[in-house]
Specification:
Elements: H1 5-18, E1 32-33, H2 36-52, H3 55-71, H4 73-84, H5 89-102, E2 112-116, E3 119-127, E4 130-134, H6 140-153, E5 157-161, H7 167-183, E6 191-194, H8 199-207, E7 213-217, H9 220-227, E8 232-236, E9 242-245, H10 251-263, E10 275-279, H11 280-292, E11 295-297, H12 300-310, E12 311-312, E13 315-316, H13 325-331, E14 342-346, H14 352-355, E15 362-368, H15 371-382, E16 388-392, H16 396-406, E17 410-413, E18 433-434, E19 440-441, E20 448-456
Parallel strand pairs: 1-6, 4-5, 4-7, 5-6, 7-8, 9-10, 9-16, 10-15, 11-14, 14-15, 16-17
Antiparallel strand pairs: 2-3, 3-20, 12-13, 18-19
Amino acid sequence: MAVDEKELQAIVKEVMAKLQTGAKPSAKQSGIFEDMNDAIAKAKEAQRIMQKMPMDFREKIIANIRKKTKENAELLARMGVEETGMGNVGDKILKHHLLAEKTPGTEDITTTAWSGDRGLTLIEMGPFGVIGAITPCTNPSETILCNSIGMLAGGNTVVFCPHPAAIKVSQFAIQLVNQASMEAGGPDNVAVSVTKPTMDASKIMMAHKDIPLIAATGGPGVVTTVLSSGKRGIGAGAGNPPVVVDETADIKKAAVDIINGCTFDNNLPCIAEKEVVAVSQIADELIYHMIENGCYMASKEEQDKLVATVLTPKGLNRKCVGRDAKTLLSMIGVTAPENTRCIIFEGPKEHPLIAEELMMPILGIVRAKDVDDAIEQAVWLEHGNRHSAHMHSKNVENLTKFGKAIDTAIFVKNAPSYAAIGFGGEGFCTFTIASRTGEGLTSASTFTKRRRCVMSDSLCVR
């Protein structure tokens, strides 16, 4: 049944009111507790039940999470934008549908077997137990729902520590997961959190004896904290993905792809194009096509104003992150054309709006003498995060050379960055890309431990 704009806004306000922090858990706030220790204890009880469930029962729960994610995609998107002030509703709706359709479930949990004269040996993927998960404000409900599918598929339950700027939408997503479980006949509290996710609550979670694994999706600070916890850690940290364009590329298509990727959800995805390194031979043509596709070319004076506006002594101005190009330009007194999608400018790789990961549709363009110079500059700009990189080229040798040099978890060729997570490209979806700890694109199998089961001199029947 279609819901008109006024009805939808009323629903959003009603849900927001019900999720005001400090409210005591109730049937409508399934999985939300006042105390972190209580949350972990309940998740542990639920995990004992989950571990005994056959795979097809886990899959029933996951299928219901997918269904509820699709049904609530627009509501989750609007709640996320309203609470955080970041991104745009249309793209967030697409992200929720993407994760519902392309996040791996129990099919990712497999068994390896050896059978021979000396018997049978199995390698099984078993659960860790209760996983601690720290989630960001950039993709709050997307990360929670995506993580929940993968973690539950592995037989785990999960304790979430959402970003303080996205508490309400995160709690709503957690409740959807529990509702999906109970409706399928599973336990409550398969996903839990606290009413007020503070630093103290996170510290309790990270130090708790019943949390063997912590998965952190966020900035470099939170990942470093998790890796210093003494627990097994999966760290999905920052990136500053460069996109290289060489002289063999389809320049018009490259311009369209780069702008589509850079502006998707106002540049919030960590995989998105953050700067361009273009071979000088084709740079002017590329800029022309970028302007034709809704880019605003900032003057030197406007660049300086942007630097003063979006960057602060403590880092990024939170009021600018995830904002659209027209809003950012209005902050510096520029009234941009209605079709403006992205702000571009030329500068050296050291320019603060190029060297810094911005998470907003501001795209600096660096000229390079040739492809080797472009690769060298792009590697410098990626800062060793080993996260994501992109290239537009028809030269396989150049693509190979850059792929080896940049050594990132994701390398997209001749497509927008979002192809990396299955949107217009092959492969599964994830919002936790663990470049720093080496897991890469996480899925259900990432959240399991390998166990060897051996029977000697028996069960080989060939």
